[in-house]
Structure prediction request, 602 residues.
Amino acid sequence: MTLELRNISWSVGFKKIVRDVSLRVEPGEFLGVIGPNGSGKTSMMSVLGGIRPPSDGMALLGDQAMRKVGRRNLARRIGFVEQQADTSDRITVHEAVSLGRTPYLSLLSPWSEIDDDIVASALESVGMGNMADRIWHTLSGGEKQRVHIARALAQQPDYLLLDEPTNHLDIQHQLGLLELVHVLPVTVVAALHDLNHAALFCDRIAMMDGGKLIAVGTPSEILTQQNLRDVFGVEADIETQHDGRCHIRYRVRNQMEV
Amino acid sequence: MIAVLSSAPGRRTSAAFAALVLLGLSLAFAASVGETAIPIQTVMDTIANHVWGAGYDVDPIDAGIVWNYRLSRAVVAASCGAALALSGAVLQALLRNALADPYLLGISAGASTGAVSVAILGVGAGMFGLSVGAFIGSVVAFAFVSLLALQAGRGTGAIILAGIAGAQLFNALTSFIVTKSASAEEARGIMFWLLGNLSGVRWPDATQALPMAIIGLLVCLWHARALDAFTFGRDSAASLGVPVRRVYVILIGVSALMTAVMVSIVGSIGFVGLVIPHAARFFVGNRHGLLLPLSALIGALFLVGADVISRVIVPGQVLPIGVITALVGAPAFALILCHGRILR
Prediction:
């Protein structure tokens, strides 16, 4: 089953935030989405996740238009972790992750032991198995983000969409979180701010600018000196390491004299 | 309490049964207390006579007081408390705002404008009473607020701000009508009505209020899981498979309708819709499968109790019930706040 956007646009009022984006997510890959602030990453992700319908074009899940698939079925296929989703409600970690079972529950199929098992294993797979009873607001930023991922995993999705999952985390937790997501047996689409993280973890990278998708390709195809200058407005040297991964070394334009 | 209410369907049925018994007892108690105290046995006999024609020998005056005055009044109080508390719980969950209450949508302000239009300006030329006017007023105000919120754009902030604007507008209209056209006596009567008044309530009112509360409870319970999904906001609910827009329309619509019906019968009783859901959360947390029925139960019990107090606290005089709910509610709310378990 594939996830695909065909010439989609998305606008707020008369302002087009995303214009004419076509993108096909291949099963099993880790696709990074990069672009400067305001380039439409978040909006594109929410169309890809089926949270907002596109104003133009088609969003498809497995060759079927998303609006025909239906919200509930989408939620069983696609897990979505927002940039910053917080709550002032006093809930436990277990309750937060249990929300992930929402698309499977109804009056005829109420909560069962199977759901308990799924929630427990989702918590286990983000390394929070022993924190089920903790209260949400006592968690650190990294822990909250991992709970969100566990919640998305409890949806048993084929696709996991993450919108800047490492924002506001310290470097250890940033890398830990991406490593965690990388080994999960799901297709991942992640909007990432740090280009070196994108280079480290992504199989492919989609680059956005001004609401358009500029290019899609492997990290070494996308992360070029030219692209960094044109899209991000920074000067950088790209080093290719012995494992084939590339690394970006930024240059400050007016280097201070030492 | 938490242990009793948790999970297992068997326990849930017995908890629901216990709640109904508790509610029945409170109604019977409310019917026995008053200026003339009537023994609880007489109350039970009267109810039995009316409900299944048991044919007990009851003094007809006592029976009249119990059945026609106090019991109908208690039933309306219970329905009203349950409906307002439910609306509050639902709106707080949907709008992600701890201060949301049923009157946020401009409903009570619209109701008062409708009521004074009928009572003072004579709109409708005696074709309908105060409560019909209040109902129409609240529906108009709610329509105004909804349209404003839709125009103002997406997000929960738009609804709250539109509600504030609507409430201010309709309150100003009410004040304008009262100060321009009302006599001192009329103004006092309107004032009394605005603070909530169960004095004139009889069975015809109860047959509107009770079904509305029950339907409202069922609709809200049907959406309990959807409300849970709003814990992390609208987009998060959408990503969990909840049809956000439909849930908004249904639940805000039902809350508005419940509130409009209750306000048109008893006036705007403050504080119940705001405070009771927080109190209920204190006991069972945020899962709406438990929170909604418990809010309804506490709301019903609270308002029945407040009505009893309003009838007996000043001998020979009935206080507006809104005064009691706020006098009791405000300190209770302060207590809960200081326990610090609402927001943090």
Notes: The longest strand of chain A covers residues 15-25. The radius of gyration of chain A is 19 Å. Chain A has a mean pLDDT of 90. Chain A touches chain B at residues 46, 49-51, 71-76, 78-80, 82, 85-91, 95-96, 99-100, 102-103, 105, 107, 111, 137, 148, 152, 155 (CB under 8 Å).
